[in-house]
Structures are given as structure tokens and as C-alpha cells.
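2024-03-11 09:14:02 DEBUG pipeline.ingest accepted 1 chain
2024-03-11 09:14:02 DEBUG pipeline.ingest length=115
2024-03-11 09:14:03 DEBUG pipeline.predict start
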Amino acid sequence: MEVAEIKKNIEKILDNNKAQSITSIDLKNKSYIADYMIVASGTSSRHLQSLSEILVSELKKLGMDDCRIEGKNSIDWKLVDAHDVIVHLFHPEKREFYDLEKMWSEEIPKQKAMI
């Protein structure tokens, strides 16, 4: 599956499961860790946990067997590693605190891209 298709599927899965404020960030010229980062909010700790588990389950059905969840013990943040797409799921207050959208909004010269 192509990266753009993975990104589109993730956005759809999150939207279908009532994730809020879904934002995609293009990392292609900013980092080598992934092509895209998707940031979304959940309404509660249970919602964040459900979103992460549903996302991994649905991606598995699409043939992506080795996606994993980080932050399983966290009540306000989860990360789903979907190969070339990283998904951050936050409780709204933590999302505002970390403000990943702002941090990754600046253009970074390719020779200075972070690993």
C-alpha cells in the first residue's frame, strides 16, 4: 500500500471513530522518521485507547500487520507507528501543550532534517 493511501485510510478510520481535529503534517522534507504525521484528539482516556486499538486493528485488516502502539499506559497520549505515517492521539489539553502542529510547521532545509 502506498504512503498516501495509508494516510488517507488512517484519516478515514479516525474520522469514523469520532477523533477530533484531525491534522496531517507532511514530513517529507523535514524528517527521515516518516513521510506524514497525523495528530488527532480524543475526548477521554478510554476514547484515546479505543482509537489506537481500532486503528491498529483496521490497518491489520488492510495488510499492515506490524503497526504498534506506544504509550499504552498513558492516559492522555498514544502513538501509533504505521510505518511511514506516525499518528499522535492526544487529550486536548496535552495536544495544546505540546503543539506538534506548530513545531513541525516550519520548513527545514533537507541537509538539516532530523533523523
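2024-03-11 09:14:41 DEBUG pipeline.report The chain is about 35% helix and 25% strand.
2024-03-11 09:14:41 DEBUG pipeline.predict end
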